[in-house]
Amino acid sequence: MTVLVLWDVDHTLVENGGVSKESYAGAFELLTGQTARSRARTDGRTDPEIMADLLRDHGVDPGSFSADSIREALVESLETRRGRLAEKGHALLGARAAIDALTEAADVVQSVLTGNTRTNGFVKLEVFGLADALDWDCGGFGFDAQDRPGLVAVAQRRAAAQHGGQFDGENTVLIGDTVNDVRAGILGGARVVAVATGADDVDTLAAAGATRVLPDLSDTAAVVAAVAAAAGRPTWVR
Hints:
single chain; alpha/beta
């Protein structure tokens, strides 16, 4: 049975150096013509949720803007900061090695589950050389569902359409760094390997219900073993 591995982006695979919050402020300015006075609240949330709250924080009705206009503003804002992202951010230690190791595993499809738009998720990984090994037709992205748990089912349906078979809570593994990622997996129908590379520590992630918890991605063998265990596989051999 094929296993679907869904990677979170920010603080799981890459550190964006604060450029992500800058890009939300930039999108707000593109939409409203105003300078944002407060910072976006981001961790483990989708772009529509983040932008709706940022607009409300400034007394602006999110309903004044279509989903397409918000998406376009977000894409434009990050694209203008691509160079700054490369300067300020970096791939997290072990990220590339973990992706490559899972690529070598038998019957594994790797994609992305992120609150970002598909375009922005791709940009964040492409800048640091992480995008090419992932199947972007099987992911779940910020505007695909009302909330993050709903993205899991979207990714599972896309993976089934691309690769055949069925993907559910037995053969889907979400890798993320926040309690919201853990919650998305539990509610959405996935096992969760949590990494304490963001704001939430190992104990917090374990208490939230993660299937496995790692301090980071630096130990490639431990990452592969955690994903295999979460998916009920003793090991993977190509």
